[in-house]
Amino acid sequence: MIRLQFDADGYSVVYNADRVMLLAKEFALLRFLYDNRNQVFTREQLLDRVWPLEYPVERTVDDHIYRLRKKLKSWNGLRIHTVRGYGYSLTLTGIQPRNHPSLHDQEVQDAVHGLFRKYHLLGQGDSIVALAEQQEQMGFQMSAYYQMYTRFVQADVAWFLKQEDFAPADRLYWMLLLYTCTAGVTDQGLALCERALASGLLSSDQERELRILNILEAYVENGQPERAQEGLPLTFKVMVRDDLDKFVMPVALMEMYMHLVANHMEKAAELSDRLEGMLSEAPYLRELGRYRLLRGLMLLRTGDVDQAERLMDEGLVTLDMAKQELLKIKAVSQIRSFLKLCGPYPMLEEKYAAQYDQLDRDNSLTLRRSELRCWLEQILFVA
After folding, report:
1. 211 and 241 together in one domain
2. Residue that wins the pLDDT comparison between 226 and 381
3. Which of 74, 190, 330, 373 is the most exposed place for a label (fewest CB within 10 A)?
4. Phi-psi region of 303 (alpha: psi -120 to 50; beta: other; left: phi over 0)
5. How many domains are there within the chain?
6. Tens digit of pLDDT for each residue in 287-308?
7. Do the beta carbons of residue 171 and residue 152 sit within 8 Å?
8. Can you tell me whether residue 73 is helix, strand or coil?
9. pTM (two decimals)
10. How many CB atoms sit inside 10 A of residue 203's CB?
11. Mean pLDDT, all residues of the chain
12. What is the domain range of residue 243?
């Protein structure tokens, strides 16, 4: 894949020793699109990001895109697409990676894949994304799993919808979770989860994770904590049978959330104490962020609003630090649902609604939601 080097001092960009001089805003626009490649942005979003304190017209974006295309036309691997009626997207294609000796060294490949697995366990989405971006320079092959997981943690719905390198069945699990995490778990979303379990299209590991964890949390978010409670005995049985230590904290977090929604505060407090102990020994960022959020929800139940807000915000900041964009979207959605459940808290509702709206704009969620649902329905109901 093509790799660009940006010189912020001279507003120039380099590829393969070919340096192109840009104007300041051309440079800023290209860098933003490059850093967020394969995502589609409206003209308004680009104006907000590249011209934040100015008031140019939308035509300004079109003019800068035109000039960038003209200056970079010799770089065949880089394309800035016009998405009719919406905006622009930058993609990188057509450049073959260098033939590093390390590509043929199994020890190097195993070491890099070990890093991916470790960062995944630690919940460090930022480290996974950074490692993936060094693929060409370091000379390694990414597994299909981590090619998709890297996009998944970034909530890159557009990439999954446009991706043709992986069969629909390979993308199904990820796209199902993207839909339920970004659209909220409606009756329709829950029906899609249940249909996926019955479809036979998921791998055995995906089917197991959806059955013993994801769908239980979906029941809670759908206002059915009692159904999640009914599913827990199977979850614990499978965890023991298959020696799934890595599921202990995620399941405990889901169970704590279930009890908070059901207003079983004593049980939620017991799980909070257990999680506190686990996280003191293994402070994984992904789980730590979710735990702080749940602690905030627990304090909200007891009426300690100021402390609740502080902890909820700490949880969101932790997820942001770990580059867990999808979990951050889901977390803000859970906060909003919980505020309605035990409110009213109008100031907090307004605050987190604004945060969700910003995440929606940043990730084009509203634009992609119906497209994602249609894709899932087509795959699952044809199957």
Report:
1. yes
2. 226
3. 74
4. left
5. 3
6. 999 999 999 999 999 999 999 9
7. no
8. coil
9. 0.73
10. 13
11. 89
12. 157-382
